[in-house]
Amino acid sequence: MAPGPVEQNERDWTDTAPPKKLPKGVVLGPDGKPCRTCTDVASWFAMTKGSKSKSAAPPVLPSDCPPDVETLGRSSWTLLHSITAQYPEKPSPDLQAETRTFMSTFAKLYPCWWCGKDFQAWMKMDGNAPRVSSRDEFGRWMCEAHNAVNVKLGKKEFDCNKWEERWRTGWKDGRCDP
Q1: Whole-prediction pTM value?
Q2: Membrane-crossing residues (predicted)?
Q3: Strand (E) positions, the chain?
Q4: Hey, how many other C-beta atoms are within 10 angstroms of the C-beta on 127?
């Protein structure tokens, strides 16, 4: 059985110094304390309750707890890809400018500060500025951005030629059709 949620009275990392040796996966915030949003739930549990678990199953928090970095990432990519799927085929120059501003602001406000700074840096690299002159261009750019993160995390890359099937029209085999 996976450990239960961390109770507030068990340990509040905002009021105490972090442990000297942190488990792998724990990210410190700018304040030098463990960042709950930037740390996956398994690493958080290892830090707060010790790494011994009675089960091989990864710990799971109830759905009404603050999201860990993995939940936040999945939700964020779903939102961003869904935005690209509904983006106009021929956006106005104003919308294009607003979209570039949105992507910059999104990265600056991203709850995992480490991820946000990394995404900001990626967008500043040659060829990585948001491409927003059409739906297809924006969708492919978003897929490339997501793949850049997947590579860093050791995950499989997605075929960007299929971005529209995945996020807009549904798969050609019909499994997404009602």
Answers
A1: 0.75
A2: none
A3: none
A4: 7
Query: Where in the sequence is the domain holding 25, given as residue range(s)?
Result: 20-66
- DSSP characters for 151-177? HHTTPPPP-GGGHHIIIII--TTSTT-
Radius of gyration of the chain, Cα coordinates, nearest whole angstrom: 19
**Do 140 and 160 form a contact (C-beta atoms < 8 A)?**
yes
CATH number for the domain spanning 146: value is 1.20.120.310
Asked, for residue 177, whether it belongs to a domain, the answer is no
- Strand, helix or coil at 7? coil
Same domain, 153 and 114: yes
Pair 77, 147 in one domain: yes
Q: Are 49 and 39 in contact (CB under 8 A)?
A: no
Q: How many angstroms separate the Cα of 94 from the Cα of each of 36, 80, 91?
A: 37, 19, 8
